[in-house]
Design a protein that fits this description.
Strand content: 5-15%
Largest sheet: 8 strands, mixed
Strand order of the largest sheet: 3-2-4-1-5-6-7-8
Helix content: 55-70%
Number of domains: 3
Number of strands: 8
CATH architecture of the largest domain: 3-Layer(aba) Sandwich
Radius of gyration: 30 Å
Structural class: alpha/beta
Bound molecules: guanosine-5'-diphosphate, magnesium ion
Order of helices and strands: HHHHEHEHEHEHEHEHEEHHHHHHHHHHHH
CATH superfamily of the largest domain: P-loop containing nucleotide triphosphate hydrolases
CATH class of the largest domain: Alpha Beta
Length: 454
């Protein structure tokens, strides 16, 4: 049973538990520990991760998530963090790539995979055999290049790798990308380092990637650090992710060594190369489409809480934004404050300021039965549509009408706000009539800011 399947089982325990208490979470955490240790993740890392899950699990819930969703989400996020986040991106137009690594890790195979990957993206590519150490290396790469129809340079008579690369650069001077395959050794040693350094000096690659087989598991860390210190690699490619149970260990080890994994190899064929994205990788191996959905939901919720005053003042006002504002009752307090500071006589209706949690939930259910069009343009909601929404949501028609009535009241208030243009607002700020610093207190984090906070 691979890493994905085991992690999947642990997440299923969380998802399907009928009672969702500390015991359930502890059991699931044990399952996660087993899965990670079987994948050869360093024990200390596993313990740190599970401790974090336990600590986060019973913290205050973010708005809009259930306890179960919260625990699933943090577990998933911590796993993503463990194997390397989602920041690394494969370069679009590399000019020179040098692959290094120990013997048998998959360098030569990966050269042909990269050649295929980048030729599909329209680059003119030449590949170079700088493995002058093993006699068969030249033939292996030559055959692979012929199969792919990609330009190849090598010289079986030349023993100095840097001399081969020098000649190759001349031949490929008008190409978009040159990929150099270097020689490995059974173990990391001084001879290997000086050879790579010589190649590096001649070639000056913009990308120096270390190739590691997944089967080395957590030992990948040692290799990554050694190669990084010696020749400054700036990325890792992990091969044989298809065949090894230790892939999780290799990924987390490279992450710890701060060597970002750029690609993974998932088979012997030239097309078996994937850009590495921790999030995508995990949801796939765990067979979890809905985790992605859960993350999106959480993201939407956190963005909802980020409405800034000027967005509220100037943005579109519809049922969706109305609901968001209602939800953050604090914000409604602030809307009252805005009205006050602007010296505007009208007031936010009391019944809106005092909307209860219960009523909010009911509004939400009603809105879920509306189409997107109806939510952005509530005027569409005629008698027939109200009847349909009422049936769909299981709420009475008068409940639906109540939501619409409150919305209309707020819309009036907002029309007045929107009547103030930016110039006016700025002038008021200058004259000290408008203190956005104070205003912001009720609004939480902001996305962008047009007005200075004092
Ligand atoms: N299953 C699988 N095998 C791979 C992958 N990458 C390389 N290999 C195999 O690993 C072995 C060593 O590969 P090679 O490219 O010659 O390694 P090098 O010595 O580092 O150049 C070969 O048998 C390859 O077919 C991969 O992603 N998946
Ligand atoms: Mg090779």
């Amino acid at each position: 049973m691979g890493l994905g399947e085991k992690l999947h089982n642990a997440m299923e325990m969380l998802r399907k538990a009928t009672v969702f208490d500390r015991e359930t979470i502890k059991e699931a955490i044990k399952e996660i520990q087993r899965a990670l240790i079987a994948a050869d993740v360093e024990v200390q890392l596993v313990l740190d991760l599970t401790k974090k899950i336990e600590a986060e699990a019973f913290k205050e819930l973010p708005k809009g998530l259930t306890r179960r969703e919260h625990v699933l989400k943090i577990t998933y996020e911590l796993l993503v963090e463990l194997i390397g986040g989602t920041e690394t991106k494969a370069p679009e137009k590399p000019k020179r790539i040098l692959l290094v690594g120990l013997y048998g890790q998959g360098k030569t195979t990966t050269v042909s995979k990269l050649a295929k990957y980048y030729s599909k993206r329209g680059l003119k590519i030449g590949i170079v055999c700088a493995d002058t150490y093993r006699p068969a290396a030249f033939e292996q790469l030559k055959q692979l290049s012929e199969k792919l129809g990609i330009a190849f340079y090598g010289n079986p008579k030349e023993k100095k790798a840097d001399a081969v690369v020098k000649e190759a650069l001349k031949q490929f001077s008008n190409f978009d990308l040159a990929i150099v395959d270097s020689a490995g050794r059974d173990a990391f040693n001084a001879e290997l380092v000086s050879e790579i350094k010589a190649v590096n000096n001649v070639f000056r690659p913009d990308y120096k990637w270390l190739v590691i087989g997944a089967d080395v598991g957590q030992l990948a860390k040692k290799q990554a650090i050694a190669f990084h210190d010696a020749v400054g690699v700036n990325g890792v490619i992990i091969t044989r992710m298809d065949g090894s149970a230790k892939g999780g260990g290799a990924l987390s080890a490279c992450n710890i060594a701060k060597c970002p994994v750029v690609f993974i190899g998932t088979g012997e064929k030239a097309e078996d190369l994937e850009e590495f994205d921790a999030q995508r990788f995990l949801s796939r191996v765990m067979g979890y489409g809905d985790l992605q959905g859960l993350l999106e939901k959480a993201k939407e919720l956190s963005e909802e809480q980020e409405l800034s005053p000027e967005e509220i003042l100037q943005g579109a006002f519809n049922l969706e934004t109305f609901y968001q504002q209602l939800k953050a009752t604090k914000k409604m307090g602030s809307i009252g404050k805005i009205a006050e500071m602007l010296g505007m006589k009208m007031q936010v209706p009391k019944e809106i300021l005092e909307t209860t949690e219960e009523k909010l939930d009911s509004f939400k259910i009603i809105m879920d039965s509306m189409t997107k069009q109806e939510k952005t343009n509530p005027d569409l909601l005629n008698h027939k549509r109200i009847e349909r929404v009422s049936k769909g949501s299981g709420k009475t028609e008068s409940q639906v009408r109540e939501l619409l009535k409150q919305f209309k009241q707020m819309q009036k208030v907002f029309k007045k706000f929107k009547g103030l243009d930016e110039a006016k607002l700025e002038k008021m700020q200058k004259n000290g009539k408008l203190d956005f610093g104070k205003l912001l207190q009720g609004f939480g984090p902001k996305k962008k800011q047009k007005f200075k906070i004092r």
